[in-house]
Structures are given as structure tokens and as C-alpha cells.
Amino acid sequence: MKTEAMKVFAAYRDALEKGDFAGAFAAMSDTVVWHMGGESSLSGTITGKQALGERLGEFAKRSGGTFKVITNWAASNDCFVAASVVSLAQRGSDTLNDPGIDLFKIENGKIQEVWTFAEQQSAEDTFWG
Fold first, then answer.
1. Which residues contact 85 (CB under 8 A, 6 or more apart)?
2. Fewer beta carbons within 10 angstroms: which end of the chain, N or C?
3. pLDDT in tens, 10-53
């Protein structure tokens, strides 16, 4: 299970870093549940690939296409992968550079559920509005 989870995560990460959103979404279950931490208008629980795509599109729109997530490292335990990430974006003269942890639950060869944790959550909430 540990090896499978890391393989699925690696496919997702590699696609995301290349800007291959179709590839990143191919690693997800159709019914993926994404828990975005915080109190901004983009926070909350999103269910399903279509809804997640719409929400991520809003991140891109608000940041003029500059939003990206960089993975520093990842480790797995059973069906879970914890990833040290940095969220980066610009919005006018404001800059987001927020480290955090994303926790992925991977089963049946797909990402089933994700929880995001930002180190500077209040600053991220202010950035996204």
C-alpha cells in the first residue's frame, strides 16, 4: 500500500509541476473530497473533480494565473501521504509564500481525500479574500 500511495502521489505531483492539470486530475477519484483549510471565500470542503476544478480555477483567476504549489518532500504511511508544500501566488502587489502540509488519502489507485494545512493561515485567508 505504501508504495502504491507514493506512486499515485508522484504521478499527481509530477503532472501538477508541469502544469498538466488533466494528468493531475487523472490521479484523483471522481468523488475526491478536498478539505481546504482556513476562513477565506475559497476555504471549505469540495466534493468531486468538477467542483474541485472550478475551485482551483478561481485560485488561478484571482492570482492572474500565478498560483502554484511546490512540493518539498513527501512521506507515506499506509494509505496516507503527507507532503511538505509551499503555496505561491501574486495578486497585484501582494505576494503569497505560505508553507504548509497537504495530507492525501490514497486508495484503489486514486487520491480519495485531501486535507490542506497552511502555516500562515490567516495571511493566506487575507490574500484570497
1. 69, 70, 71, 72, 99, 100, 101, 102
2. C
3. 999 999 888 888 999 999 999 999 999 999 999 999 999 999 99
Cα distances from 107 to residues 2, 17, 19, 51, in angstroms, run 10, 22, 24, 20
pTM assigned to the model = 0.93
Please give the backbone phi and psi of residue 36, each rounded to the nearest 5 degrees, phi first: -95, 115
Mean pLDDT of 66-74: 94
Residue with grid cell 473533480, as numbered in its chain: 49
Distant-in-sequence, close-in-space partners of 56: CB < 8 Å, separation ≥ 6: 21
